[in-house]
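Q: What does the assembly look like in three dimensions?
Context provided by user:
Components: four
Sequences:
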Amino acid sequence: MTDRPDLAAMIVPLSRALVDAELPVLREHDLSMWAYSVLLALDERPLRTQAALAESIGADKTRIIGVLDDLQRRGLIDRTPDPADRRARVLSLTAEGRRVRDSAQTGIRHKEERLLARLSVEDRRGFLRALRALAALPHEEITNA
Amino acid sequence: MTDRPDLAAMIVPLSRALVDAELPVLREHDLSMWAYSVLLALDERPLRTQAALAESIGADKTRIIGVLDDLQRRGLIDRTPDPADRRARVLSLTAEGRRVRDSAQTGIRHKEERLLARLSVEDRRGFLRALRALAALPHEEITNA
DNA sequence: TATTGTTATACTCTATAACTATA
DNA sequence: TATAGTTATAGAGTATAACAATA
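A: Here is the predicted structure of the complete assembly.
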């Protein structure tokens, strides 16, 4: 094995620093990290249940309720009972929600690009390709490796 | 900008999954993540103060006290008042501490290698090179980017 | 007066279980 | 009875402030 620091020893602090870097951007939009995650997850397609949303962003279903309350109150998401099953709440982005998401994401990507600019072209490419591949793995496939 | 998911959206879940994957290995050695971090940080050179150790692993100085208590009680670290400044505690690994660290690290690297084996040779190289470069940056240099 | 380590306290986050309303 | 959402509670993790010893 090539000599290198532990993966986690590098990734965990980097992860924390990235979050710290992005929180000010989110705060400008009055978004918590979970709220931003919700806006991202709802970007593509509406979701039929809150539990599905929670699972897709790695949160507990009880943990996002306050987040959804706030986003709904601010008109950033729609949250209506499913006529076919009135237990479920269909979730989707509003136009305003999409606007806020776009604005926040632009700021975040701007910061990220400045960080990635420190890498050589080939390292940057390998880093992003590898990161996408690893991030696409199911959680259990990593923990059970 | 090339289209890609947010960096943090990929790194944060990956970071969590990595930690979840490694915790069982650490538990076999009765080590918490912070305890393991301490053993890694003390590996190279002894440190003159607990505050310096805490800072080097991104922890609060009050948070590692219980960790150090436990490691000292188990004979994995030495923790003696500095004769030149009796306020400070000089910290170093014992031979047993080094043995436990090596054993835990072997298990952790084994898991990591199985994960990295999913990447192509060139992506793996770029990923590790980029990760080392980004992890070497001071925390503020990332947050202020 | 400042610094090192420590303890005590409060605060945030998270996980678990219990409740309601629908099915 | 099972499920979606909600609420309440407790637990872990973390941050802040106050304290004792030493400089």
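Follow-up: Chain A is about 60% helix and 10% strand.
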